[in-house]
Amino acid sequence: MIEKNEGVRSIVIFSGDLDRLMAGINIAIAAVSMGLPVNMYFTFWGLNALRKENFNTKGYGLFEKLMAIMMPAGPKKLTLSKLNMGGLGTWMMKKQMKIKQITMLPELIKMAQEAGVRFIGCQMTMNMMGIKRDALIDGLHFTGVAGYLGEAEKSHFNLFI
Amino acid sequence: MADSQIDAIGLQCPMPIARISADIKKLESGQTVEVKADDPAFEEDVRAFCRVSGNNLEQIEEIDGIYTAIIKKC
Q: Which residues of A touch B11 (CB under 8 A)?
């Protein structure tokens, strides 16, 4: 291994668009495969990709319940940033992805976690949107912006998606 | 004959690289893995993979759109 493999690579996922998520996670998978440690920070709409599909919001307040219903729950519910056309475009693209053996987002997330990408949730966004830790998939870490900056300072690259 | 074989034909970027990485972890230093892939960007990718991960690209050839690479674990 060469020297530059010290320190992490930081990817901030702000967007909750299917295409942007796929790009970010594919970069992360390739990076860890090449021996480069990766931290992925999920904030704002990006957190929706990490939500459990059928989470019971019992005990949540009205605002939190509404947010939980209005936002896409989990990677299967995300749509393309372009050409979505009320879901038709996303449906067509997913069909093409199957035909062309492109790995789908839910599997990509699983693969990335298994390959050692550190998934980190933004605690502030979660507080704001009323997303509790148990509403998200397992194996996550949580931090604030200072925690992200502390690692990003040592990063060789830093992407904001 | 390589110590390990990977058939990555039909797989899209970055999965051939992810497969190589997973395989190479199981090998001892000095052992080799042979990879077949048809991703048109595979040659560039596998060269970068070897350079960054510190492994040795022993051989790469392309016949009719199928790349065959031999990587030695360092």
A: 101
Phi-psi region of A156 (alpha: psi -120 to 50; beta: other; left: phi over 0): alpha
ipTM score: 0.88
Residue contact B12–A102, C-beta within 8 A? yes
Tell me the shortest Cα–Cα distance from A34 to chain B, in angstroms: 5
Q: Tell me the domain boundaries of chain B.
A: 4-72
User: Domain B4-72's class?
Assistant: alpha beta
Tens of pLDDT along A9-51? 999 999 999 999 999 999 999 999 999 999 999 999 999 999 9
**Residue B30 corresponds to which tokens in the numbers above?**
């000095």
pLDDT in tens, B30-59: 999 999 999 999 999 999 999 999 999 999
Q: Select which of B9, B11, B13, B27 is catalytic.
A: B13
How far, in Å, CA of A136 to CA of A47, rounded? 8
**Chain A residue numbers touching B48 (CB-CB < 8 A):** 34
